Amino acid sequence: MYTPAEDWAGQPGRPRVVVAPDSFKGSMTAPLAAAAMSRGVRLAFPQAQTVPVPMSDGGEGMAAILAAALGGIRREVKVQGPLGQPVTASFTWVESQRLAVIESAEAAGLYLVPDGARDVRRASTFGVGQLLGAALAAGADRIVLGLGGTATNDGGAGMAQALGVQFKDAAGQELGPGGAALAGLASLDAGQLDPRWREVEVQVACDVDNPLLGPGGASAVFGPQKGATPEDVLELDAALAVYAGHLAKLTGRDIASQSGAGAAGGLAAGLVAFLGAQLVPGIDLMLRAVGFDTKLQGADLVLTGEGSLDSQTAAGKTPWGVALAAKRAGLPTIAFAGRIEEAAIPKLLELFQAVVPIWDGRGSLADAIANGPVNLEQAVARALAPRTNP
């Protein structure tokens, strides 16, 4: 465990511990992680009261977490997957708030494409548009959209096409799917967008600040993760530059340079341009949605964590946002992770009371991932026990 000089010394009586992890990718979902951490707390403090609050910064699990927290239900929709294949996707519907929560990966996720079939040049967000259309048809006044894990790099063009926006080439033909096709974009017509979109608040949970174009943009940063070769990156970036010019004409704004516009292969840019979406730090959105400040009332300690604590953690990842909220409430936070980047530890300890690895490096990584819940439970128990039995 890496910890500063002053340790949390525990509280007498019946301590109340808020447990708010994100998922540990490949090992456990956020609810499973919260359950494991709660068990660890009770191993150290049998009398403790734990308050599990599974979290997300807009990636996988966001919709399920909000469904549980807000009393939503899941609605299934048949949509096109990233390469045009039929996919059964879903969104969370919260009737009391007329709220729809959508994860873009449900329709355009990288997990929907086998490794050998990835084609980032042709992959489309059309299915995301279909999910948005289903939410509008359900009567949504507000939509929250998570961007994590897409297979696409089309700037949200496919999403817009599904909602009625026309993308045509110089011959007046509708463009085909995917980011590469945008190189041939000659005209863009959003006149067929449903006017009801002007009345719907669309919030996008976005945990990156990448612009649409250039060395820090969608193609260069995220394209290789989706199978793009160096040649593909150059082609896709050039195609998105053509697209960006049309978005600027349509909106009168330089959306391509907006912080976060490159998220999810530029899907964020399309959402801003066509639906007037707001890009919001995902963790801030989630904390507000679940009423996190209220859950901190009367607490003595906060626990959080995710798969990796590193130099990106302070850029708005779940553990950092949780700890900031806890600090405002005057509470210490301990963070747990499968991997802790050594160079990031000084920065992490500026906010966290301690950062704790859940794997000691012994055995194989595959076994550590498979045994993640047990490892996390035991790490929590070890981290807290010395403070109850000095």
Give a written overview of the molecule.
There is one protein chain. By secondary structure, this protein is α/β, with parallel strands linked by helices. The chain folds into two domains: 16-55 and 291-388, Glycerate kinase, domain 1 (Rossmann fold), CATH 3.40.50.10350; 62-283, Glycerate kinase, domain 2 (Alpha-Beta Complex), CATH 3.90.1510. It is built from 14 helices and 13 strands. The protein has helices spanning 30-44, 62-70, 105-108, 126-137, 157-162, 218-222, 230-251, 263-275, 282-289, 292-295, 318-328, 345-348, 365-370, 372-388, and strands at residues 16-19, 49-52, 73-80, 86-94, 99-103, 142-146, 166-168, 187-189, 201-205, 278-280, 301-309, 333-340, 354-357. The strands form three sheets. Strands 3-4-5-6-9-10 form a six-stranded mixed beta sheet, sandwiched between helices. It has a five-stranded parallel beta sheet with strand order 2-1-11-12-13. The chain has a two-stranded antiparallel sheet with strand order 7-8. β3 and β4 form a beta hairpin. α1 (30-44) runs parallel beside α14 and α9 (282-289) packs across α11 (318-328). The radius of gyration is 22 Å and the shape is globular.
